[in-house]
Design goal:
The protein is an all-alpha fold. Helices cover 72% and strands 0% of the residues. The termini are far apart.
Length: 117
């Protein structure tokens, strides 16, 4: 079989392209297995240990947890006021509930970050 010929499935040999594809597939599988082993051990691809999130990342996560609760409460309160005609009481009540939810989310995030290290 010449290098330009393709295996038609009737001859026992494989073409050059098929053997090249098999070699590339095996190399890819071995690299994927190595990456999976590194992930399971917590090591970075360059051999360093995986680092915990920095303080700035934690700060943004905490602030997002708090602000999302307050904004969700304000939005729900505004919608209640708009459709029920209870201005401004729906906004006030749900804003306070959103604030309480934000504090609750903040405490839960802090506990989770404390457990993780």
């Amino acid at each position: 079989m010449t290098s330009g010929d393709h295996n038609d499935g009737k001859t026992p040999g494989t073409s050059l392209q098929e053997s090249d594809l098999d070699a590339r597939r095996r190399a890819l599988e071995s690299r994927l297995e190595a990456i999976e082993r590194e992930r399971s051990t917590g090591a970075a691809p360059d051999g360093r240990a995986a680092q915990a999130p920095s303080g700035l990342v934690k700060l943004f996560r905490f602030s997002a947890d708090f602000v999302s609760g307050v904004l969700a409460g304000a939005l729900i309160g505004w919608l209640v006021d708009r459709f029920a005609g209870t201005r401004p009481w729906g906004l006030i009540v749900f804003l306070l509930l959103g604030f309480a939810t934000g504090i609750y989310n903040l405490v839960k995030s802090a506990q989770r970050a404390n457990r993780e290290g």
